Every structure is written in C-alpha cells, then in structure tokens.
Amino acid sequence: MPRLAELIASLSIATDLGLGLPQEHVLRQTLIALRLGALAGLSSEQQDAVFYVSLLAWVGCIADSHELSRSFGDDRRIRSDSYLVDKAGLEMMRFMFAQVVRGRPPLEGVAMVGRVLASGFADATNSFITHCQTTGDIADRLHLPPRVRDCLTQVFERWDGHGVPGHRAGPRIDIVVRVVQIADDAEVLHRQGGLGAAVEMLQSRRGTEFDPELVDALIARAGEIFGSLEIADPAGAVAEISHQIESPLTPAEFDDALEVFGDYADLKSPWFSGHSYATAQLAATAAAHAGLDRHDCRLVRNAALVAHLGRTGVSTGIWNKTGPLTAAEIERIRTVPYLTESILRRQPRLAELGALAGTVHERIDGSGYPRGLAANSLSTCARVLAVADWYQTIAEARPHRDPVPKSERATLLRQLVTEGKFDGVAGRAVLAAAGHRVPRRTTLVAGLTDREAQILDLLVRGASNRQIAEQLTITRRTVGSHVEHIYAKIGVSTRGAAAMFAMRHGLVDPTD
C-alpha cells in the first residue's frame, strides 16, 4: 500500500492542472519550502507541517471554479496569471478587471465589469482566493494533524494584514504558512524567469505579502535553495520523505482516501457533484455481477473514484457550457483520461489504478478516447468501468440536457451493446447492478446470442463444424445453421473476416 503523502502528492498534480500551472509546481514548491524551513531553523514538527501544508495549501483551488468561470471565463488562466501580481490593493483590482474583459467583445466586457461592481468587487476577489473550508475538510478526512488544519485556514493571510479572512498579520501568521507562501510564488517566478525574476518578485513584496526576515534569508541563500531544482525528482523526493515520517496505509484507509479524490474531482463543476462516488458504487456492484473476484471488484471501484481527476485540467467554463462545444473544446475534454493517468502514474503504487482509470472512455469497437483501444486491449475491469461511468453520466443532468429516464437508459445501453460499443457481459452486469430486469438470453454485438458467440469463438480458432458439434453436444446441421446466421449478422462470408470481427469485439478467448 502507498503512504498518505504519496496520495497527496498525486492530488497535488491535479492541483497544478487546476491552477493552470505545469505539473510538479506544488512538488517543487514543497522542496523549496522545506529548504527554506531548514534554513530558518524550523523544528522537526514544524518541518513536517510545512511538508503537508505545502502539498495541500492550494488543493481547494477548484472549489470556486464555477463562480470564477461565470465572471472571468477561464478559471485556470486567471489563477496562473495571478502569480505575476501582488494580490491586494489597486494592483489586484486592475488585474481582476483586466481578466473580466479579456476575450470578450467590448460591450459584453463593460457589462461584465458592471455586474462585478454591482455584486461587490470584494466578493469577486474573495471568491478567487478563498477555499480554506474545502481544504480543511480534505485535511480532516485524511486525518492530518490539527496544526496542519489550522495552518490551512491561514494560507491567504498576508504579512501586512490585508489578506483573507484578515484575522492574522505579521508574526501571528504561523511560520509554517509564511514559509509555504514564499515558496509558492517563488517557484512560479523562478521557473518562468530564473533566479533573478524570483528575487525581484520577493523584494517587491517584502513586508507586504511576505515575511521580510524570511525573504531576506531566502535571498541571501537563493543559490542554495533554488539549486538543482531543474534536475531534481520532486515526486521521488516527496516519496522518500513520506517513508521517513509515515507508515503505509491499510487497504481500508487507502479506499477511504480515494473517496476524497472522487469528491475532489467532482468539485470542478456543480454538474458533477456526487458522480464519482455513485459511479464507484455502481461499478463495484456490476463487477461482482460480471463474475470478477474481490480484488478486481475493488480495483474497478477505486478506478471509478479517480477516473475524472483530469477534469481539473479543463476550464469550468467548458464544463458549464450550454451550447455546442468547439472542436478545440472537444479535444481538450478528450485529454481528461490521459491527464488522469498522468496524475496517478507519478507514484508507482498507483500506476495500475491509473492505467485502468485512463480507459474509462474507451469503447470495444475502438471508437473511444484517448487511445482508441479495441476489445482485445480492454480487460473485463475496463469494460465494466466504461459502461458504469456512461450509465451514471446519462442518469445525471448536464448543462445541455436533462437526465435520461431510467426506463430509457436500458434501451440505450442494449443498443450500444448491439452496435458493438460496449461489451455485452459488462452491459448486462451494469443493468443488473442498476436494478433493471436482465433477461437470461443475452444479446451481444450485432445481435449475436450467447450460443452464437460461443460457436464464433470456436470457429475462428480453427475448429471444424464437426469438432464444434462434438464439443457443444449439438448436431453438425445445427452448427451449420448457426454459422450461416453468424455470418449474416456480422456481414462477412469467410472465417478470416469473422476472426477479425471477433477479435475486434473481444469475442475470442485465447486462454480456453
């Protein structure tokens, strides 16, 4: 089992996407914070707190994505651009108004500025920089120490007292938070403009946003603190630290933590609320109906929980769009499974889970995404996961449509099975798990029955009609009749063409 910090480190990659920053921003920031903390003489207990607070400080950033997208369009863009300004006073006000009008026709931009002013500029600003309650809830559910939770409520406070919620200033802000704040902005400016840009930014915000003594300490040893970041392995370093301060999670603790991942992914838009958990429950039950063992049922359940982490890499404005999507928007959405797998594969113990989660939108006829995998590349776990996620999705409302009534879902699913999009066994399992009546007689792709699929499997592996008849204890004439029907249904006339069809749709079991 992985350790908790390894899970949080993976969650931080999703946070990077939500911030509109390159992957490993938070991990690199954590290394900077730990180096600065050591230089400042922080105790072992304080350094442990720096570790967790840095990994989690911005994890709640997507909680206000819905509100941001309504006022500013691309929530990811405004977050990434905000690192270039001091987030207080006139500079922040100019930045926010520039973001409101950006990309909009002039009249629409003026109207949006008026709307922001009417609703209160402070409310818009606070929506942008406050998510402490969400982050605190995540810290509670992950059973992190009280000091970590307390620090997470302070991450938007400022040394000059002009932060949010404005309850603390100067040395009353926990030094753990002050260290993490400096590391966060410094990492972005160092990556974008080098050591000089980071130092210039720190000097300009010394005594306003940041603790002046910590700024001076960092600048004095900047080469040491920022050195080797370009060649460092942040994920490996975080894993090494976690091995020193944590024990591996139990299976139950691991499963509970992944529920946090699912809820986190669903925060991206109100339209997704509860989707991941509901899909996980449906997928786990369907996996059991499909005959999978306990290990695979658990694997499918957990993959469903994390399958949409990559949503953080897509603007909420796209997810909330009521009209047709542009080609570019569609392509961005199609990257979500890849982003999910990329988030999870950074930690070797999560690689198997990530690989399965990345298949959630694949289809057995090869028409899915992102890789266009066909049946012979999709396990039963993957097939069940895909159907369960699709079924749960159509059961929910989206900006452009109402939920599909339960009575229609079964018809749609059976049609997709017949068309060869979904596996028949997985389809039946999901229908049974969702409470539909499932007939004993199975209809598979192209309208094949269970018996016809059985005969097709034997036929394409070279068995003669006589051998098929003997194995299935039926007459050769019956086999011949079935073969004629099979060829007619799948639109072929030779065994070779039938073999290609069967392999494409996963109807051949080479292990028999």
Automatic annotation (TrEMBL):
InterPro entries in UniProt: Cyclic_di-GMP/3'3'-cGAMP_PDE, HD/PDEase_dom, HD_GYP_dom, Sig_transdc_resp-reg_C-effctor, Tscrpt_reg_LuxR_C, WH-like_DNA-bd_sf
Residues in HD-GYP domain copies: 250-446
CDD domains noted in UniProt: HDc, LuxR_C_like
Gene3D superfamilies: Hypothetical protein af1432 (1.10.3210.10), Winged helix-like DNA-binding domain superfamily/Winged helix DNA-binding domain (1.10.10.10)
Ranges for domain HTH luxR-type: 441-506
SUPFAM superfamilies reported for this sequence: C-terminal effector domain of the bipartite response regulators, HD-domain/PDEase-like
UniProt name for this protein: HD domain-containing protein
Species in which this protein is naturally found: Gordonia defluvii
